[in-house]
Amino acid sequence: MSEIIVSASDVMRTFMISAGVFRAKRPLHAVNGVTLDIRRGEVLAIVGESGCGKTTLAKLLLGLLPPSGGDIRLDGRPVMTIPRLEMAGLVQPIFQDPYSSLNPRKSVGAIITLPLVVQKDQDPSTWRRRAEEMMALVGLPPRLYNNFPNQLSGGQRQRVAIARALINRPEVVICDEPTSALDVSVQSQILNLLQDLRGELNLTYIIISHNLAVVEHMATRVAVMYLGRIVELAETDQLFKAPKHPYTMALLESVLTPDPSLGIPDTHLGAAYPNPVDPPSGCTFHPRCAQVMAHCSVQAPKRVPVEGGHVECHLFDANLGKEKAIA
Length: 327
Ligand code: SF4
Prior knowledge:
Mean pLDDT: 89
Radius of gyration: 21 Å
Order of helices and strands: EEEHEEHEHHHHEHEHEEHHEE
Bound molecules: iron/sulfur cluster
CATH topology: Rossmann fold
Low-confidence stretches: none
Number of strands: 12
Largest sheet: 8 strands, mixed
Shape: globular
Structural class: alpha/beta
Strand content: 15-25%
CATH class: Alpha Beta
Number of helices: 10
């Protein structure tokens, strides 16, 4: 069995965006050359600002969107050749909002067993028992089997969503902001539950989040996305202790400190997030970069391998060397 469960190689996804009634459509490269190997059993977090392409990348990895270019493999097989039903048994999503992701007209039991119905599981007589086992695993009492989502708390609804995602024992679970719609008091319970289930069921998680506290708590590695590219990929400890890419540094500086008198630290990201339809030249981060150099606006940085991942920044390109920052 290969150590790599998901492998993405130079993956692209382009959407044609209308610029107005009488204007030609323009390409938006939502994912623009992502190369990434995800190890079996790891928790890979994908972080970045809204619009950076992380949700599109998740959809590509789920096989919900075909890539415009490049190659995505699950366990060595091209994702787009895996039949839809089989794919649903291998990769499952958990969405951020349990309020809208559960059908209000279905009971808890019907929601959790739905994947077995869809997969035409051969033995319906076992469905209830399996659902109740899964409910026990996620901390839901069996008496809730016939209840409806509106009779549950937010935390219980997210537990139902997790049970539904895991009942077919998928290999990979993609968690899209799994706690952002929940009360702070239940967020850590759900995160701890996800951690426990990973160990118990040998799961691989891909977590999409812009909550860096969640990422630090859960992830084994972190991919930082900016305008469709992974600009830094590193082990979690390494990334939080010694971030390399100026964008990662700015993101980490933007985390609120526990001392409210310190306010929001300066992120150095004074310029607004660029329009993805009209990205800046060279390094697309250059208009916002605190360490920008003369050639950054002209030449796109190459991917430089580092321990546990890579970084895309001229500061780490030995061939270019360091110039004096002009910011
Ligand atoms: Fe900043 Fe230049 Fe590195 Fe881009 S390549 S992140 S502009 S230093």
